[in-house]
Amino acid sequence: MSSMPVIVIGGGAAGLLAAGRAGELGARVLLLEKNDRLGRKIMVSGGGRCNVTNSGSIQELIKHYPGNGQFLYSAFSKFSNQDIMLLLERMGVPLKVEKEGRVFPSSDKASDVVKGLTKYLKEGGVEIRLEERVTGIVTEGREVRGVTTEKGRIASRLVIVATGGKSYPATGSTGDGYQWALACGHNVVPVRPALVPLNVKEEWVKEVQGLALRDIYADIKEGEKVLGREQGEILFTHFGVSGPVILSLSRYVKNHSAPQDLTLYINLKPALNEDQLAAELQLELQKNQKKQLKNALDDLLPRRLIPIIIRESQISPEKFVHQVTKKERQALLATLRNLKLTITGPRSLDEAIVTAGGVAVKEINPKTMESKLIKGLYFAGEVLDIDGLTGGYNLQAAFSTGYTAGDHAGRESF
Fold this sequence. Notes:
Blueprint lengths: L1 E2 L2 E4 L3 H12 L4 E5 L6 H5 L8 E2 L3 H5 L10 H6 L2 H10 L4 E3 L4 E4 L4 H14 L3 E4 L3 E7 L2 E7 L2 E4 L3 E3 L14 H8 L4 E7 L3 E3 L11 E11 L2 E12 L3 E3 L1 H11 L7 E6 L6 H14 L18 H7 L13 H12 L1 E8 L7 E6 L17 E3 L13 H20 L2
Parallel strand pairs: 1-10, 2-3, 2-11, 3-7, 11-20
Antiparallel strand pairs: 4-6, 5-6, 8-9, 9-10, 12-19, 13-16, 13-18, 14-15, 14-17, 15-16, 17-18
Helix pairs in contact: 1-6, 1-12, 9-11
């Protein structure tokens, strides 16, 4: 039986920071990753660009975690968004800040972030074992004694679980950490999809699948009550809608007892008030009086969306513009400002960007990420019951909790 002072399970965002920080402190660290390479989920984050973090203040960051945001205050104070940016820059990964404070590598390549964090591990002398699957946590009494893998047992009194959630299982996030937490006596809040695309009833979305619209407003409503509103980009798919706006709004759907009672309304022209949009629509129609309506809105809408808008306004697309009535113009205006989609529910956990639920944070010391139940056992990243909105918040939570766990375990190893 081999032994290591610090064992980190999982080579994602939290695990890389945990191992890197413990190694930086001079601890002997072993990182175990069941995949054949590190950072697989980082590689697909942000559409392959990797939205590393958000540039807001700590107080602003915490507001973007719908549940348990205050738990992160100590971790953010120890290792903030500015700290991860400085670390990546130091590791040769220049960054840029985009709209709404979203931070990306200047290259727009998530692979550069993984390379930078791998360099951090190597500088700290971290031993990395790929394709070695952990099968359990070994405890004795209320203390950690090591882990078991498919290749045998490894002794250690300091183990950091950074195995991620259950979203994107193809990247290795299969929920192993939850089972180990339960076996160690921890409570696990039932997991469910967070930041997830939405299914809709309307079949017309299939006609425009792949179409992305920028700078729209979207409301989730229950009857006339607005539950949530977001501005940004939306993507139509063969099953419904996705994109940053939808992922953020999905929390109102996943937490609702009857998602089928909810409706999505899209304002396609939020930069214009009703009078301004009416004037622009009137101008567009006047320019194209001799055309059929289906050929008259090219300057107002993406070509693929035009027949949908006309149909949803209950106007014949073959009708000539000069025949369009005032009532029909009003119907077009209403559709442009409130394109309606009937929600049938969220997509599955397999398609979620992030997992909600996880190891109950009340059983974790927020200053160290150490278990309050088992000495020497730490949890970091998405395995915890923490989930944030889109915009770099989930990766920042993983980086900060991972660093905090690695910092404490690294110091405890001596």
